[in-house]
Amino acid sequence: MLKFYNTLTRTKEDFRPLNGNTVTMYSCGPTVYNYAHIGNLRTYIFMDLIRRTLKYEGYKLKGVMNITDVGHLMADSDDGEDKMAVASREQNKTPWEIAEQYTKVFFEDLAKLNISKPEIIAKATEHIPEMIDYVKSLEEGGVSYETSDGIYFDISKFPRYGCLSRANIEEQLAGARVEVNDEKRHPADFALWKKADPLHIMQWDSPWGKGYPGWHIECSAMSRKYLGECFDIHSGGVDHIPIHHENEIAQNEVLTGKQSVRFWMHGEFMLVNNGKMSKSLGNTYTIADLEKKGYDPLDFRFFCLNTHYRKKLNFTFEGLDAAKTSRERLTQALIQHKASSAATDKAVIDKLRGEFRRAIEDDINVPLALGILFTAIKEPKSKDIYELALEFDKIFGLSFDKIKASETVKEEAVEIPEEIASLVKARAEAKAAKNYALADEIRAEIAKKGYNVLDTRDGVKVTPVK
Ligand code: AMP
Ligand code: ZN
């Protein structure tokens, strides 16, 4: 039975879709004002792992990811300027040009990391009417109020406010800094709609004059449009728990009274040298940075797979090097399994497959599942192991299908005994004489003595069976 950890209940719960066989899922997407850094990308690898797990379990997916191209202010709690406006000024481009540029690179990064795109990609700027409608309904429901700079959600109208982070709002606020906006009734009230000054580039007509949407209403409006009032899964990074997702819950549920999201799932943060990484601190890396240093984006994906999504992951280049080496070793082993015509006992395969599935069903335990793959490749070389690895790769997404049997096998400094060397020679002679039956017989004899023979572009390679 598939189990996912639900942030809302702080427990692992059995997962079943609300409706039939199709899972409805919303994932908070990027704010496209800059390149995604490797921390952001860890969160999208996490989203991808949820999606792959659901597919592996036989479910269909209806996934939505937003592209925030307006309204996300410098601080999540509605302070500061719109991130898009800042980037636009700094780079001397329109916010639309900025959005287009970084959205394009974002999807290129996802493709490099084998992250499948959700079925629906929803740009905030293409859903302004839905957002205005949403704010109007909240206004009609009497849960918002107007100030000189916008329309705000009144959290006192939603007694469960704080249910996701389990924060005691009053306690939290007692220690908080002085509120900048003294027109707000409560410091945690948040903007649904911001009124724009004439110089603000991105602005739309609305019942409250010209302005732009608040960041939180974007996700509520787009998830409701595509997935309805109640859907199965909402994913994002842990930083979204206390403000962004808390606010989404308040907007979604204050008028319906229904639980809008069945499973809230959050990916832990990536750190750099054990510290916080963020674009504003300037200690971030992009996929392009890693490529420039000679890494394959899949080295980074593999690096991420080694740590469970609910654990912090500290990024270092030593760690990435270790991942690269380990992935190389894996590839070498898989080349040999692929080249083999031998079979593996079905019972052995079934056992490995069962263990793998149990790991995945236990809240996507990919590190454990990788361990099972490493156990599998230690089996005597066989095409069945390669086939099994391909099946596992539906979760890992490491492109095992692109491994070519003809890829050069790295020389290992091993001494080949005389006896084996002369058998290899005899096999080469048999092949030269087109006596393939004899060549295969000799290969089998060599295998019995504990060695694999592999024909590669660079000649015959002989390696001991591990
Ligand atoms: P943003 O583009 O800033 O809206 O962030 C995109 C996603 O990346 C969000 O889901 C964040 O939760 C996530 N995120 C931001 N920083 C990190 C980090 N250091 N590690 C992992 N995820 C992060
Ligand atoms: Zn969101």
Gap from first CA to last CA: 34 Å
Sheet with most strands: strand arrangement: 7-4-3-12-13
Number of helices: 15
Secondary structure tally: strands: 18
Contiguous runs where pLDDT drops below 50 for at least 5 residues: none
What structural class do the secondary elements suggest? alpha/beta
- What's the overall geometry? elongated
How much helix is in the residues? 40-55%
Spatial extent as radius of gyration: 27 Å
Name the assembly state: single chain
Small-molecule binders: adenosine monophosphate, zinc ion
Summed over residues and divided by their number, the pLDDT gives a mean of 91
Instruction: Tell me the fraction of residues in β-strands, as a range.
Output: 15-25%
